[in-house]
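I hope you will forgive my troubling you with a question about protein structure. You will find the record immediately after this paragraph.
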Amino acid sequence: MTIPSDPAPSDHSDKDALRRATLARRDALPADVRVAAAAAIAARPLPVPVTAGAVVAGYMAIRSEIDPAPLMRSFVEHGCALALPVVVGRDAPLMFRAWAPGVPLVSAPFGLLEPAAEAPVVVPDILLVPLACFDRTGHRIGYGAGHYDRTLATLRATRPVVAVGLAFAAQEIARVPATAWDARLDLVLTESEVIDCR
């Protein structure tokens, strides 16, 4: 696959342009390709060692995102507990509430689904991260709100957490114009490979 090059300056307009171009490529992937990609990621051995009871924070896929549900089920089969993110505020890190497959979710802003308010708040050991595009150094462009950058900075200030980006191979770019504030991923999983960015 040819990886598109990106402009040199690292400003918001560059990130916006990269986001739009990569999301257009992602949107163009046929539904059966998306399903097969999610299954391929989940069929591999887990990308990180886990201990029983480790908390894995996933997400509910929206739009054309790769679906983390098969991988989340694989973590459960290895004794992990699951959590989902909750948007607390525009400039706040995400909060995570415990969740298990089959437990109903509630509608939240931006078309998201979240655990109900009575679900316990937990702190993840492993964070599955959605993204618009990524590079091989572990930098990513998200959707522009900065929630995951703030969340990873907050979590990593107090304890180790493994950040695992999930993406289609078509979302890779040559270089993300990252800043010192952008949190890096430890791994990126695509349908074709496991990319270790550490």
User: Anything to note?
Assistant: The radius of gyration is 16 Å. DSSP finds four helices and twelve strands in the chain. The chain has one domain: 12-196.
